[in-house]
Design brief:
With 74 residues, the protein is α+β, with helices and mostly antiparallel strands. It has 3 helices and 4 strands; from the N terminus they run E-H-H-E-E-H-E. The chain is 26% helix and 22% strand.
Length: 74
């Protein structure tokens, strides 16, 4: 479990957005996203979440599909 951030994906919306799953997997420099078992979905690789650099590339290419929550700001 991540200590500093939480990454979530709304796969119901990702599935409805053409190419979103592939873009999320491709854009992340630390491989937080991996292809899901169902076509057009992604999985969050929990082991990589704390490696997030907060670059926000996933948020820019998939607004409202991926969320990055900073747990230390709560």
């Amino acid at each position: 479990m991540a200590m500093f951030i939480q990454v979530t994906v709304d796969n119901a919306l990702v599935e409805k957005t053409e190419g979103a799953a592939e873009k999320l997997v491709e854009v992340c420099p630390v491989k937080i996203y991996a292809p899901g078992s169902k076509k057009g979905t992604v999985n969050v690789v929990e082991e990589n979440v704390d490696e997030c650099t907060l670059c926000e590339l996933c948020l820019k290419i998939a607004p409202n599909l991926a969320q990055v929550k900073k747990l230390y700001e709560e």
